[in-house]
Amino acid sequence: YLKYSEPAVQLTDKLLAITTDDKLRGFILEQKAAAFNDIGAYYRITGNIPKALEYSQKGVAIAKEGNSKNLMARCLFQIGFMYQAQDYKAQALENFQKGLALCYEMKDTNNISITLGEIGNLYGELHNTEKAMEYFSKAISINEKFRCLGCLAGVYFRIGDMYSKSHDVKDLNNALIYYQKGLSKAEEERNLNMICLLLRRIGSVYKNLADYDKALDYTLRSLKKAEELKWGEGIAWAYASLAKIYLKQKNFKKAKE
User: Among residues 92, 40, 99, 39, which one has the least CA distance to residue 64?
Assistant: First the structure.
């Protein structure tokens, strides 16, 4: 990132010093904002969050000067993810909301859908289920309109995850409803990785509901899919889930296997 982004910033500064055409200046400012955001991404990946925030916030300011809503939104989203990673949910929400407003102005339905899901997820982590469902429902409406099966599966997956964290039977049953909806969309799209994940999640919910026969059924189906995919991580997760189910059944011999 730094190898190319820092020289890019220097080059844009030189070009801005000699450019008077407004349209061209706007383009150059957009490139400068993108370079700052890339530097921010580098520092985020390497764990230097203060530096990452500094550069991505510079990116927002430069993008605003160049009237680039697209770059402003990109920078704001990156800042939101930085705050989210640090568990600063209020600041993450603020930046996602600002980016979402810009996406609505641009009619950027893809990023609107993604951001609605991120905001819904954050509200879920804040245990504000009503607000989370408000945003998830908007994401579902957009994805249904454009028949984005993978996106729908992802949103249903997140809603299922939100409800599955509860120990309340009603919430666990809601988790099953949304995981099953996600599974239906994933199967329609033939997204084998998502199918594998959802089968295991459904098995986990049945385990928490003490329906161990169904828990084993779905988890074994998840294991079979993971083996078909030769997906090592998925196989390991499935075996770990099976061990937990057998322990609940006090079948220590199978759990040890």
Answer: 99
Enter the pTM of the model: 0.87
Please state, rounded to an integer, the average pLDDT across all residues of the chain: 92
Those residues whose C-beta lies under 8 Å from the C-beta of residue 34, and which sit 6 or more positions away, are 59, 71, 74
How do residues 15-32 score in pLDDT, each as one tens digit? 778 778 788 888 889 989
Could you tell me the sign of the dihedral formed by the alpha carbons of 33, 39, 45, 50, in that order? negative
Distance from C-alpha of 77 to C-alpha of 92, rounded to nearest angstrom: 8
What is the number of other CB atoms lying within 10 angstroms of the CB of residue 256? 9
* C-alpha to C-alpha distance for 213 and 224, rounded to whole angstroms: 17
Query: Could you tell me the CA-to-CA distances from 210 to 172, 223, 234, 248 in Å, in that order?
Result: 11, 20, 23, 8
Q: Is the separation of the CB atoms in 192 and 217 below 8 Å?
A: no
Confidence of residue 59 (pLDDT cuts 50, 70, 90): very high
Angle at 152 between CA 150 and CA 153, to 5 degrees: 65
24 HSE (CA, 13 A, CB side): 8
Distance CA(85)–CA(251), nearest Å, equals 39
Half-sphere CA count of 229, side-chain side, radius 13 A: 20
**Spatial separation of the C-alpha atoms in residues 54 and 252, rounded to whole Å:** 53
Structure tokens at 53: 């925030």
